[in-house]
Amino acid sequence: xxxxxxxxxxxxxxxxxxxxxxxxxxxxxxxxxxxxxxxxxxxxxxxxxxxxxxxxxxxxxxxxxxxxxxxxxxxxxxxxxxxxxxxxxxxxxxxxxxxxxxxxxxxxxxxxxxxxxxxxxxxxxxxxxxxxxxxxxxxxxxxxxxxxxxxxxxxxxx
Length: 158
Prior knowledge:
Beta-Lactamase
């Protein structure tokens, strides 16, 4: 597939529905995990203009920074710490309307105001998380959760 995205305006659902087949096309035929994570992060950031979009990958008892789009980020996160570590520990998507109110939030940037973290799962094991931050409060909802969970299901580790 060409590496150009067709950026769609409209409702959030419309944007996701147009983006998912494009991400699927970017992933088709490419087995390199880093390339696929990088293109997925770039596609999401380009479509939605969020503050930060990226991946943290499980490395023993830590999440380690993977491909991302946005400002410099925290490199390592302990299991159970912050939104990413909590999503990993709990094995579920977390939506945080105001990160300052999340117990133990790790402030990689004071510009981040809300966050959604989606676990990456294979064979019942979490191998990473998708982390998305917005500079606006209350940016993420069930619609984001629904479609971001579909997007991370497209990602495969070889």
